[in-house]
Write the structure tokens for this entry.
Amino acid sequence: MRPSLDIVIVNWNAGAQLRDCLKSIESARCNIFTLSRVVVVDNASNDDSLDNLDSLRLPLVIIRNSVNRGFGAACNQGAAVCDARYLLFLNPDTKVFKNSLVVPLEFMEDAEKLDVGICGVQLINEKGRVTRTCARFPSLRRFVVQAIGLNKFPGLKALGVRMDEWDHLHNKSVDQVVGAFFFTRRSVFEALKGFDKRFFVYYEEVDFSLRARKAGWITEYLIDAQAFHRGGGTSRQMKATRLFYSLHSRLLYGFKHFPRWQAWLLTGVTMIIEPLSRSVFSMLRGGVRDVRNTWMGYSLLYRDIPDILGNSRDNYE
């Protein structure tokens, strides 16, 4: 019996990128596996993302949300209608190739790889270059290094969360692969009760990967398969909002997984020290406009602190 795969794509105003992604899936189908369904969960898009998808030769299921529920919650919503052996969470700004689906699936099917719960593949950017997409599990030290910007200097990249010092040119067991192409066993996803929906966007896959590791599952990065990832997704034009959600999720992650004193120290560093260091790097990189976006993101974060602290008192799944 052929192994089965379901693909879940969360869409929010992805425009033509969504159709291009779906067309690439259509081209990547083969008789080695059964593509049970492709679930598109639309988070209240107001563009034409969902128009004219009926012509695609795919087992397509479209779920339309009346509000933007966030990435993690929408992934859970899509996975809830799936029953295949494997799940692939795929960003709409990606395109898969012929080997993108077969290689990780055959790898997971290997009887010697039954302890592998999550797979990622080599992601290629618009210039055809391999991007650095794997990361270490965050710690207070790594977050502080990142907040100050020390990991931006040559020779210090290994101090940060992202594995920027590694060329991503060989297979490797890693802490975490990026959520743009997140291949997992459905049994693992269900055992962990999916993504933590409190992470509206960003860090939901980091949290999931850490919980998987604690449950005994390994994450593997494979270079025998590639996929295209544009990067930035539909939030490229929303730099301030993107920064806000990244920082918001970082603090939630700290309160969930760090000792309480470390979470509070992380909050202090994030709220007081990091705005200054980010402003310096923003000025060097993009000038006044980038600095303005930085402070707009932080102003959103300052206003949202009561919500973050409220969530920190809740019990996470």
User: Anything to note?
Assistant: The radius of gyration is 19 Å.
